[in-house]
Amino acid sequence: MKSIFKKYAKLLLISGSALIFSGSAFAAKTHLTMGMSLEPPHLDPTAGAAAAIDEVVYANVFEGLTRINQNAEVLPALADSWIISSDGLTYTFSLRRGVKFHDGAAFDSSDVVFSLERATAENSTNAQKALFSAITS
By CB count within 10 A, which of 19, 49, 57, 90 is most buried? Predict the structure, then answer.
């Protein structure tokens, strides 16, 4: 038992020393590049909670009514503009005209309603369902 403890203590001491003495090499770097492989189990972001869906599908396949830029500003996407009521409870979106789905079908307000109702349905397994809880109609 004592020899196992000594081996782990030596290993810990060597590892700690390596970290301390290599600190200046790490401090000189200002960027970190990290590669990842993400495979979403499906392409339906409302059908499960896999992290890969958020990372891969939302940003590359779906488009929302608005988007947020790197300065945290809300910008138009599928909505050209919107009006917020004075009490802050009602948002009225004006949708972009001429938007078509991959099959050529026109995009309209019924598609937005369908998407929101599907994402918030009682039997939905959408991991972001709580984000829509304040929507009443």
Answer: 57
Strands 79-84 and 91-95: antiparallel
CA distance to 89, 123, 134, per residue, from 131 (Å): 15, 16, 8
| Domain ranges, ordered by start, for the chain | 51-132
Q: By C-alpha distance, which of 42, 38, 39 is closest to 125?
A: 42
pLDDT given at position 63? 87
- Nearest in space to 78 (alpha carbons), one of 93, 92, 64, 59: 64
Q: Which residue, chain included where needed, has tokens 């009521």? A: 85
In a 13 Å sphere around the CA of 48, the CA atoms on its Cβ side amount to: 10
Digit-coded pLDDT (tens) for 84-95: 999 999 999 999
Rounded distance, CA 76 to CA 80, Å? 5
Residue 126, Cβ neighbours under 10 Å: how many?
Answer: 19
The CATH architecture assigned to 51-132 reads Alpha-Beta Complex (3.90)
Tens of pLDDT along 57-70? 776 778 899 998 99
Residue 71 Cα to chain centre, angstroms: 16
